Amino acid sequence: MVTTTFFSRARRSAVHAPNKIRGFLALPGEIRNQIYNYYFESERRCEIVGNGAQFTQRSPQTIKLSLNLALAKDTTPAHKSEANIIPPTAVRFPRPLGKYNAVRGLCTNWQGSLHALSLVCKQIYSETATFLYQKTVFVFNAPKRMVNFFRFASSVGIENITKLHLHYNTYGHPHRTDFRIWQEKHSQSW
Q: Taking every annotated instance into account, which residue ranges of this chain make up the domain DUF7730 (predicted)?
């Protein structure tokens, strides 16, 4: 006769069937990687700059070296039409990273996020983090913002960054020698 006591019943482990993974995560990893390649195909820009920052490029200064030179046939290659080139999607972060408003709480901005797929769950983020950082151009215009970004970015993200754009505005040569100290301070901050 087998007697069961309170303690013997407590030690019995209930055998549960493992939870079946359904949906996107049930797909094999190779297929998910192909989907990630299509999703992260285009290049994105992440601008970590101030609110009023404008990125303007100077037109190149050209000098005509030869005069009265005539060619029988135009041998210059035709330029690609820039109207067909789609500019990359850009997201701008004007506030310092790492400073969040606790009153607002956790609020996911799906429209303003760079790649919303990475925000779905932890497993998808871990699978897409390399794609996210490799296909994004990070744009900075101040050294403090750049240092702050690298302080808060994950080590996986920093290892996979492939493109950085640094916009360095100079003030030109100082007209007075006592203004040279400001030029040196600006140069040292970079």
A: 24-176
